[in-house]
Structures are given as C-alpha cells and as structure tokens.
Amino acid sequence: MNTERLPTTIPEYLAHLRRSLAGADPALIQDALYDAEEYLRSELAENPGKSEAEVIAAVASSYGAPDEVADIYRDTEVKVQTALRPPPPPVRKSAWGRFFGVFADPRAYASLFYMVLALATGIFYFVWVVAGFSVSLGLSVTIIGIPLLILFFGSVRVLSLVEGRIVEVMLGERMPRRPLYTVRGRSLWQRIGDMFTDPRTWSTLLYFLLMLPLGIAYFTIAVTLLAVSLSFALSPLTLLPGIELSVWMFGLNLPEQTPWLLPVVSLVGIALLFATMHIARGIGRLHGLFAKHLLVKTSQYA
C-alpha cells in the first residue's frame, strides 16, 4: 500500500471516505463515518505518542484506506440487506396473481402492524416534543433551562435512532444504525451550536410532531378497513343456527330480508381484505421514504 496517498489527519480521512461513498445510501454513509472515526480515535488514544498521520498509516493495513473501507461497506451492505430481507414473494405474472399474492408478502403484514402501532408512537413522540420543548424553553431564563434544552435535543436524536430501527425492521427502508457523525475536535459550545443549527434536528422535531396526525390516520385506516372487510367476509355466518346477528345495508337487514346477498357481500369483503393489505404495503413504502427524508441528514453527504 502506498502510504503517501493516505490522509494525514482524521478529518481528511473521513472526508476522503465520504467522497468514496458518494452515491451510496445516506444511512450507510452515516454509519461508515461514525465507525471510522470511532476506530481512528480509539487507536489515537491508545498511541498518545504518535501523530494522526502515523496512526492512520499504522492502521491502514488492518482497517484499510478510505477507498478500501468504502468498498468493504458497500459489499457488506449488500450481504446484510440480503440476509435481513424477508424472502420475496413468488413473482406472479397475471394481474389476479399480483392482487391476491399480497397475502404472501411479509412486508404487507409488517406495514399493517406499523400502521396500528403508529398511533401509540405518534402520541408518545408528540407529547415528548411538546412537553420537552415547552418546559425547556419556559425554564430557559433560569440556570437549568439551557442544560435541560440541550438534554432534550439529545433525547430527540436518540428517539430518532429508535424510530429509524422501527422503520427499517417493519417497513424495509434502510435507516442509520449509528448516531449522526459529527466533527470532533470542536469545543463544547461549538458542538452545542451545531446541534441547534443542524437542519436534521428541526426536521426530526417536525417528523415527531407529524407522527400524531399520521398515526391517527394510519390507525383509523387500518382498523376501519379491517373491521369492514372482516365483517363483510364473515357475514354468511349470521345464517348459522344459534347466531342472532343483524347485517344492515342500504336499510335492509340482509339475513332476514335478502339472505341471498350475503355470499356477494362476503366476496366483496374478501376482495376488500386483499385491497387493505395492498393499501398497507403502499403506505408503508411511502412512510419509509418520508421518514428517511426527515430523519437522515443527506446534505452532509452531497
């Protein structure tokens, strides 16, 4: 390896690594930058008598040059995503096959569960942001106000990682698995200023606020469609002896007045159930992109 071409400082190494990963997933870049800096900083701490250039040259053979690390991360990402991705459903050529084949797609079930779960997470995120921001801002005139506000912003970043893991596991959208990469060597006040001026901090707050109306909408859509489709699909059971239930539609009590319509209603319910799974899968994909846009800082990696 030609050590003359290696960066001589950790910021240069990270900048080179960022350029080498240009075009990769922003979440992957965030993880790679964080891992590289943590490794280089730990090696530098273990060798206090060496300069950054000497440490980088020494670890290049084990950790790798920026271009090599970028290639390793790209290859590893493909292997990890292949291993974690659920088995794809069989490819169906006909429109009917694609419509009814949604029941074989695990991502549809995960997206449906996320829509139901979003109500709870949306309420929690909204309350956390509103209460935390208002209390911190209200106490900003006191001695504990500013530290409390800093802790609040730190907690928002932690919650961002948690939400990212939920989104990746349930919706399949690649999200960061490491905290946001930040430039080291800056003073405490500079880091605090970076936290306040970082657009991702405010976009994360916006995401958490929007999760309440989105969670309500997702929960309502999921529960309503499931309730209607299942009630329609199971409506013929009202004809069984000992079951006294009424199915009203268009002002008619179907079991008593038009029992011959119940099989038709059941078929409509079954079709609606399949449509519900398609809707859930579509909402899951859209929300994954929405979460990535607001929770992952992309301008840093342009």
TrEMBL record:
Domain annotation Putative sensor: ranges: 114-295
Family annotation (InterPro entries): Put_sensor_dom
Keyword Ion transport applies: no
Key words of the record: Membrane, Transmembrane, Transmembrane helix
Pfam families to which the protein is assigned, alphabetical: HAAS, Sensor
Sequence intervals crossing the membrane: 108-131, 137-156, 205-234, 260-280
Top-rank taxon: Bacteria
Record's protein name: Putative sensor domain-containing protein
Organism listed in the record: Luteimonas aestuarii
Lineage start: Bacteria, Pseudomonadati, Pseudomonadota, Gammaproteobacteria, Lysobacterales
